[in-house]
TrEMBL record:
Domain of life of the native organism: Bacteria
Protein name: LysM domain-containing protein
Segments crossing the lipid bilayer: 69-92
Keyword hit for Iron: no
Coiled-coil intervals: none
Keyword annotations: Membrane, Transmembrane, Transmembrane helix
CDD domains xrefs: LysM
Claim: Membrane is one of the keywords in the record: yes
Residues in LysM domain copies: 102-152
Record-linked Gene3D superfamilies: LysM domain
UniProt cross-references to InterPro entries, sorted A to Z: LysM, LysM_dom_sf
Stored Pfam families: LysM (PF01476)
Length: 157
């Protein structure tokens, strides 16, 4: 008795066919079919990472009526504070600019108190010293050196 073996598509093990109804032989005959290797996929494109992830476009800013009032109040407050600060500094510099001055050269052993007393004989010597220090941008009242030229305010009287 002969038995035939045939291969089914997709199976690796042969299906056995017995014409007499049962297994009577000890050998199996294979029909050799040419087997092609499965084609390998070739990549034509390669993935390139992005430099930075794309951000969705932001929605336009919408201000409510209350938001517009808050922004307006903040701008008004900023203008008011800046005008007060700048106005005070302008007022402080205007007084010094209109004050007439003269120059005095510091002599050996001379103090700022003596210079202020000579400049304002009938006035308050402490305020005169403060004005001399401010006019000459001195670090303090005791930092005088011989030969230094000082700007001294001129007082009437």
């Amino acid at each position: 008795m002969t038995s035939y073996a045939r291969r089914s598509a997709g199976h690796t093990r042969p299906d056995l066919f017995f014409p007499s109804g049962g297994p009577a032989m000890s050998t199996i005959a294979y029909h050799e079919l040419p087997v092609r290797p499965a084609p390998q996929r070739q990549r034509h494109l390669s993935a390139v990472p992005l430099a930075a992830p794309a951000q969705p476009a932001a929605a336009p800013l919408r201000l409510t009526r209350r938001g517009r009032i808050v922004v307006f109040a903040a701008v008004a407050l900023l203008l008011a504070v800046s005008s007060i600060v700048l106005g005070a500094s302008v007022a402080a510099t205007d007084d010094a600019a209109t004050l007439p001055t003269t120059t005095v050269q510091v002599q050996p052993g001379q103090t700022l108190w003596e210079i202020a007393a000579e400049a304002n004989p009938g006035g308050d010597i402490r305020t005169t010293i403060d004005e001399i220090v401010r006019l000459n941008a001195l670090p303090n009242a005791s930092g005088l050196k011989m030969g230094t030229t000082l700007a001294v305010p001129v007082y009437e009287g």
